[in-house]
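Working notes for the structural subgroup meeting. M.R. asked for a predicted model of this chain before we commit to crystallization trials. I am recording the input and output together here so anyone reviewing the notebook later can reproduce the run.

Input as submitted:
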Amino acid sequence: MREGPGYTAYPAELEKQTIPKISRVGVTLVCEHLVTMGILQSEKKRSPTHSKTTAHYGLQEDGETFIKLTKNYFRTLAKSDPYSWQSSAMWSFMTSQYARRQINSNLIRDILSSKKVEMPFFIKMGKKIKKQKVDSKHFLGDSILLSFPVMPPGTTIEEMSPKVIIHNDTLTEDQKEYIPKIIENHYRDVEEKTLILPILALLQISPGALRHFLSYWKPYVRDGSVLSFHSTSQGFEMIEHVLFRLVWNTINDISLTRSIPEMGNVSIAYVSGGNYHTGKPSPLLLLRCMDGLSFEYEAGFDTDHIYYGDGADIVEIDTNPENCTVKIVCRKESAST
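Returned structure, recorded in token form:
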């Protein structure tokens, strides 16, 4: 996992690298088992020390293989060390070149899009048009309700445009004219900074967050079919419960290890301020990245339960499966910060 893409090795070579020592026969059995599982690929070629061809094994670089390997590896670590397996995962897996290649925006987009996650937004047309410095006579006081499916890897904005759901029954001519600009802006900038990159930062430093994100979870759709829209929405409604777990798993992991993987994009993490004093209330979790971006995460809940109905028909009102709230702020750090 610590080698570059395309790296392969034969059993005698792998035998020298195993700790504790495993015979080449044992190594071969393990490798063949992993080939059967679809994690390793095998090819016959000549090694430097043999005239005849021998089996060489290497990791497959596709996302499906990465997910399968990660789940099995983390499950094995957690079984042997259920209370602090994250420490072993941090140095043995999260710092590997293989993990760094695979934990990327495409992985997140692939999972979110395959689960049909959408970002609902309540677009205030008046404010949007005013920001564009359009003549005041075109100022609109109405709004548009849009749902943006997460863009899969390798897809263009043009391909996503017809998939955006417009929930308004009727549209004015001005609204129809402006919607393409909203869609372009969302897929060019908003989705990446608001949703993809904040998740990526968490997955790059937290084995627990990565494990949860790769697990079986469902997007939340209120009443089975209707999304909620409000003016303060960040578009997280369908996965707010997932983001909540990712944030808290990350906090749990770094509270155990008091470190994050070195040489990654995330350079430092602060929990509830830590030693980072700003003179203002600190976010629950702050991640500073090497590319100049920082992410502030708030993830909260309460023990209040609200019900409606009567007698046997009483039902608890759920905001999402966790009855939680999540807020994420992305900032671009200045050179002097």
